[in-house]
Amino acid sequence: MKCHRIDELMELLQPAWEADSDLNLLQLLDKLGKEAGFDGDLKDLSDEVLIYHLKMRNSDKNEAIPGLKKDYEDDFKTALLKARGIIKE
Hints:
This is DUF1040 family protein. The protein is mostly helical. Helices cover 57% and strands 0% of the residues. It has a domain at 2-62: Conserved Hypothetical Protein Ylqf, Chain: A, domain 2, CATH 1.10.1580. The model has no long low-confidence stretch (mean pLDDT 85). The two termini are 30 Å apart. The protein is elongated and about 55 Å long. It contains five helices and no strands.
């Protein structure tokens, strides 16, 4: 599991770092953390925050989070009926 997260993070970091190639790695991580709203110490910045921020960084602010998109319903009534088992998928 950890290898998958490392690979995913490295794949997402590469284009971001190439776009800000004047920054060293710690400066880039600090910048990404601040963009994501993280205000703690850099050592406490989790890979999950970085991964989700890098995935959502250039997307519309109203777009669903990728991990939640599969369960997303535009219509509340439909979502409620599916949750109660009245509508089968």
